Backbone:
RNA sequence: GCCCGGGUGGCGGAAUGGCAGACGCAACGGACUUAAAAUCCGUUAUCCGUAAGGGUGUGCGGGUUCGAGUCCCGCCCCGGGUACCA
């Protein structure tokens, strides 16, 4: 059987067959045909609908392998439901605001708009050639006026509901650049662009009051459980971070000022030996300024405030503190304890103040030992005595309360509710549920985002832009230069405006919105993308929403997926939506990773700049091409910034879209992390070319289409049919269940192997059935290939209009099973039994088998375990 | 640090608590070819053994069970997220 050379190999151009697998012609032809037939055009009136959504990309200009896996999975699901007779909504669009375009603008002086449009154009072409089917009439881009006008409108609705509020929050500030830095732009406390030490600066900014929805978001998990990955729900639960405890009011001993703390351990209140405030706590400066302590305290506090704002930074840096010179009075026992400022106290969590109980909290214990602060034991274990001078770690388990006033002698866990009641009776505290989830800071001091539609009038204060005046357009008379801060502030035409309330002079808000706001409602706009009167028509949404299947990367587990859920809930509460959860089912693909290289001097390097011995898909112990220093290699998510991207275009050129699509799902389960390697693609190519050749060779000797299968069949016929129907069952399960395409394809390979070895003894109707079933189950994965062969097999209609093949479970059933016989867990024999033979019959036959008897001589049988259709285990002594 | 994943042959991986390594890649041997590529057939966890056969083996250390890659406890390593990358 003549096959085809691997494309791109030495003489790959040689033409061997008349009907060669010319993927280029085939793929172009079918893509045109699908477009002409409107295969992916969503019908808003049809009954049985399916909304398949994949996360829209940021238009970087080039698709990367993460997109390829994401959109291939989406396309497989889309086409599968199309085959199942559903009316499909499969849209695509662009998350086109964001930092990279702005950075490019600052670097090159070009405006982000044309830059973004060009990128969209390039990526659209790449998507089309991949064969992904979308309803392009619904395409949206978040940076287009027609879209961001409604993002602004939605902001105004939030504002009206008091869900958009202004608060002060610290940002990473770089003085020379005159700009706010993202956490990822800060490396080791320094600005990645100019190397200057980054400062924390307080800024007045806009927030969405998301913390009010903490409990609702948590409650929503009940609906999602079973349909979303458990890992995502677990991460969101931790992110929301509900904890039950009490608010307790302390007072500054010297001034009487109240400082409240939140604690989950009110049972340890009698053991408080000091209190800590967050460095950003407004009280710190108020207390010490003008006192003898100011000189000593403020420099330390300022240095704390200079440190990074990211949670990772805070958690990992050394815990340090300084005494303010003041004390607080413990309301439960009147004790005066010192008030400190500590860098582990977070302004954004609880009240920004924490009580410290070193005896019963590990972090407090370490801090107390470091600064020689007292340790007071108030819970004692029942089996030993604790000694504050010698103990080496905090005692955090349950025990009996001591030195705790009215609670002495009680078990601390059991006493907890009574302690809280007692605090409430004394009016010094209150039962409280605290959440880690913070309000959503949406202000960005950047140009390339949706302007926040707010004005500031000297007379009227904060004034929302009237809805009729939307959109607030991004101006073009701006300067993109380093050291300019937000380019929006350089536009005179933008900044100066008239107050709609008093007609006086006003200034515009120059902050734009976080791009997560844009992506929190895009799935709604897809349903009604051309609506000029509203962001969407609720009756149209009624038809399509919620999304039936959402597919995207696991890296969005918390942020995007929580923001989108929150947004949907708020819109629901405003009466704009009838549902609270936007995504019924979620699938998260693993990240595509590849080795990246880092040189201390030259930062991230492309592989071509690394010299050294190639080992598999990476370079071991390489050196930098520019300076010869040894480079650090890291297996990490592919990203442009780390120069470890793979360009899918080259692969489409060489192998065609179908081979690439097949390869993407044929080797590994898509929810696991994937290490990028091209070495396996040969297998996908071979499956297609071999199947191609096989089908074309078989066609002349097959029955005509629709010929019924004879009732009398030989054993080879039966065996092939059985395998064929099993294959359909497996592929169906793979798609409906866990996206396990790799095992589905393995079953196709097995089926084809059996076909090859037995075809010449098999009836022409069975051969046709097998080949047609294989092509039809592979169609969602390799659509162009399947269409072409389907046509060759004598069918006129598109394969995607012919439905999903139906497996006959009676045909698929095995009638005999081989069962291993174990003796003490080791396999000593194998026996054949008809399927579903009962235990007694199996046991009798096994004990009668000579291979088994051999091992049982002179031994006592302790137990016989018979698992029908599986195995037999005999325990002997 | 915290939360979530993962660790199985040379490689990607398969396995409702029930035969570890399906399927594929790579490698090796053979067929075809003047030759190479492609294609086809076969071998391929590892150790002992000529063989028949037997032992060991799913990151490490314990445990539960007739039976553990799978469940439980304690570690190690790798990846993701950690609120201004998207």
Residues:
């Amino acid at each position: 059987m003549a096959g085809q050379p691997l494309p791109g190999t030495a003489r790959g151009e040689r033409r061997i067959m008349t009907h060669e697998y010319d993927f280029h012609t085939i793929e172009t032809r079918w893509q045109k045909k699908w477009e002409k037939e409107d295969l992916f055009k969503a019908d808003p009136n049809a009954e049985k609908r399916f909304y398949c959504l994949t996360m829209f990309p940021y238009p970087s200009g080039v698709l990367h392998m993460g997109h390829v896996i994401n959109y291939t999975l989406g396309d497989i699901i889309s086409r599968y439901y199309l085959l199942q007779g559903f009316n499909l909504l499969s849209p695509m669009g662009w998350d086109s605001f964001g930092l990279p375009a702005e950075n490019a603008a600052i670097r090159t002086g070009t405006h982000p708009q044309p830059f973004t449009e060009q990128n969209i154009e390039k990526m659209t072409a790449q998507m089309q050639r991949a064969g992904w089917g979308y309803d392009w009439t619904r395409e949206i881009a978040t940076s287009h006026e027609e879209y961001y006008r409604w993002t602004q409108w939605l902001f105004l609705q939030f504002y009206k509901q008091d869900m958009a509020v202004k608060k002060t929050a610290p940002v990473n500030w770089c003085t020379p650049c005159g700009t706010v830095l993202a956490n990822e732009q800060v490396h080791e406390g320094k600005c990645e662009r100019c190397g200057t030490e980054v400062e924390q600066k307080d800024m007045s900014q806009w927030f969405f009051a998301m913390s009010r929805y903490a409990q609702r978001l948590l409650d929503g998990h009940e609906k999602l459980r079973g349909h979303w990955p458990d890992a995502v729900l677990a991460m969101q639960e931790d992110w929301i971070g509900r904890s039950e405890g009490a608010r307790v009011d302390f007072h500054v001993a010297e001034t009487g000022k109240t400082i409240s703390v939140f604690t989950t351990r009110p049972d340890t209140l009698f053991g408080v030996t000091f209190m800590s405030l967050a460095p950003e706590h407004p009280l710190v400066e108020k207390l010490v300024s003008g006192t003898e302590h100011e000189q000593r305290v403020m420099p330390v506090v300022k240095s704390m405030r200079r440190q990074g704002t990211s949670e990772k930074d805070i958690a990992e840096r050394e815990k340090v503190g300084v005494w303010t010179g003041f004390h607080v009075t413990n309301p439960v026992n009147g004790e005066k304890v010192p008030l400190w400022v500590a860098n582990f106290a977070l302004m954004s969590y609880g009240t920004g103040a924490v009580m410290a109980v070193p005896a019963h909290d590990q972090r407090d214990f370490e801090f107390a030992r470091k600064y020689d602060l007292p340790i007071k034991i108030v819970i004692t274990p029942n089996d030993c005595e604790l000694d504050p001078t010698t103990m080496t770690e905090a005692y955090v388990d349950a025990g009996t309360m001591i030195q705790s006033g009215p609670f002495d002698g009680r078990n601390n866990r059991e006493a907890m509710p009574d302690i809280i009641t007692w605090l409430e009776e004394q009016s010094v505290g209150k039962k409280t549920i605290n959440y880690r989830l913070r309000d959503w800071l949406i202000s960005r001091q950047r140009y390339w985002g949706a302007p926040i539609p707010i004005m500031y009038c000297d007379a009227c204060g904060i004034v929302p832009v009237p809805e009729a005046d939307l959109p607030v357009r991004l101006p073009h008379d701006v300067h993109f230069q380093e050291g300019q801060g937000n380019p929006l502030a350089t536009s005179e035409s933008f900044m100066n405006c008239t107050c709609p309330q008093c007609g006086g002079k006003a200034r515009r808000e120059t902050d734009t919105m976080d791009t997560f706001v844009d992506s929190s409602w895009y799935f709604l706009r897809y349903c009604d993308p051309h609506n000029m009167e509203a962001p969407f028509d609720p009756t149209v949404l009624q038809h399509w929403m919620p999304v039936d299947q959402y597919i995207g990367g696991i890296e969005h587990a918390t942020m995007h997926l929580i923001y989108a859920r929150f947004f949907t809930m708020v819109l629901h509460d405003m009466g704009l939506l009838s549902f609270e959860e936007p995504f019924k089912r979620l699938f998260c693909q693993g990240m595509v990773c590849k080795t990246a290289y880092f040189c201390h001097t030259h930062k991230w390097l492309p592989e071509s700049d690394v010299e050294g011995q190639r080992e598999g898909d990476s370079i071991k112990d390489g050196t930098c091409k520019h300076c010869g220093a040894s480079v650090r290699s890291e297996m990490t998510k592919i990203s442009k910034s780390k120069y470890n991207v793979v360009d899918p275009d080259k692969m489409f050129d060489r192998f065609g879209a179908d081979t690439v699509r097949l390869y993407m799902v044929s080797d590994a389960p898509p929810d696991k992390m994937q290490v990028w390697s091209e070495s396996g693609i040969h297998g996908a190519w071979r499956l297609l070319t071999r199947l191609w050749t096989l089908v074309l060779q078989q066609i002349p000797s097959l029955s005509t289409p629709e010929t019924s299968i004879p009732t009398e069949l030989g054993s080879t016929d039966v065996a092939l049919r059985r395998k064929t129907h099993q294959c359909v069952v497996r592929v169906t399960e793979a798609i409906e269940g866990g996206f396990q395409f790799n095992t589905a394809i393995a079953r196709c390979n097995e089926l084809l192997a059996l076909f090859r070895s037995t075809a010449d003894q098999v009836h022409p109707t069975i051969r046709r059935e097998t080949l047609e079933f294989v092509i039809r189950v592979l169609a969602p994965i390799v659509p162009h290939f399947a269409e072409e062969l389907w046509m060759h097999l004598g069918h006129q209609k598109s394969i995607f209009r012919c439905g999903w093949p139906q497996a006959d479970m009676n045909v698929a059933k095995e009638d005999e099973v081989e069962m291993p016989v174990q003796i003490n867990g080791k396999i000593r024999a194998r026996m054949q039994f008809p399927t579903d033979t009962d235990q007694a019959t199996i046991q009798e036959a096994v004990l009668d088998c000579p291979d088994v008897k051999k091992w049982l001589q002179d031994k006592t049988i302790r137990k016989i375990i018979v698992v029908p259709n599986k195995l037999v285990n005999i325990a002997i002594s």
In short: The longest helix of chain A spans residues 715-736. The two ends of chain A are 57 Å apart (CA to CA).
